Structures are given as C-alpha cells and as structure tokens.
Amino acid sequence: MAQRGWTKARLYFRILVPVAALAVALPRTQLAQKNGADVTLNSFTGTWRATCQDGNLFAILNLKVSGSDLVGDISLANMSGENGRCAKVIDPPSPQHAMKVTGARLEGTTLSFQGSSNARFEMSLAGARTAKLIFVGTPVEELPWLLTKSAD
Questions:
Q1: Where are the alpha helices (H) located in the chain, listed in sequence order?
Q2: What are the angstrom distances between the C-alpha of 147 and each of 17, 79, 83?
Q3: CA–CA separation, 152 vs 90, rounded Å?
Q4: What's the confidence (pLDDT) of residue 1?
Q5: Confidence of residue 90 (pLDDT cuts 50, 70, 90)
Q6: Which among 7, 111, 33, 26 is positioned nearest to 65, based on CA atoms?
Q7: Which listed site, 86, 90, 99, 111, has its alpha carbon 20 to 30 Å from 77?
Q8: How far apart are CA 106 and CA 119, in angstroms?
Q9: N- to C-terminal Cα separation, the chain
C-alpha cells in the first residue's frame, strides 16, 4: 500500500511540476511576445535627446513616419570623453550638421538606420520614453547612449 502512495506522488510530481512551471512561465512569454509585437515604426517617432555628463545635449534624433518609411535626422555634438561616453560638449549638435536618417529598418524590437555613409545606428526602446542608441563600429556599441523622448 505504501508503494502505491509513492507511485501516485511521483505521478503527481511528473505531471504537476511541469504544468505549474509552464503556468508560471506562460504569462511572461506572452508578455514578451506582446511587447515585441507591439513595436512598430510609430513607436520610434518623435524627438529623442541624449544629455552629456556636463548637462548639455550631445545628440538629437528626430524621427517621423512618411508613408511607409521612417525619416528624420540625427545631430551629434563634438564632445570629449572616453569609450564613447560624453563627459563634455565642445560644440553642441546643430541642424546645419545633422545627418539625414536613411534606410530605416525595424527588425524585431530594434530599429537600424544610416546617418551617413559612415554612420550606422541601432536603436532599441528601453521604456515608454527612453531608448538606447548604439553607434555601430564605435565604442558606443558596448556602452549605448541613453535617449529620452521629448514631450514636444
């Protein structure tokens, strides 16, 4: 009789533990899929800014949807700092030196685009009004810039 009880207990553990684990993991999986599926080009539209350690703006990214494309421009300051970090702005970003955003492509939750022939970027949303920007081929690949979406 004791053997039979042990067999039932093992059967419950073989069935219930995996079912319970699935029940716990499923809402997280669905949430991750839902969040990824909700990211569209419109999720990236607006004016995004990055602030240097000295309190000055060092990057301004303007994005908008035009037809089925994402267009805009990105302007970067001349700055000093190590490993792609901005410690001090030397010349602020300006519209005169802005690069046109071209070739914008959404892959999953990451937006990639060209700023010029030598400047490629990848942007991923980090929150409702925050994003991380990677300047591909620079130290910023390892330490992305944090962007904040403007209210305007």
A1: 2-38
A2: 43, 16, 17
A3: 26
A4: 52
A5: very high
A6: 111
A7: 111
A8: 17
A9: 74
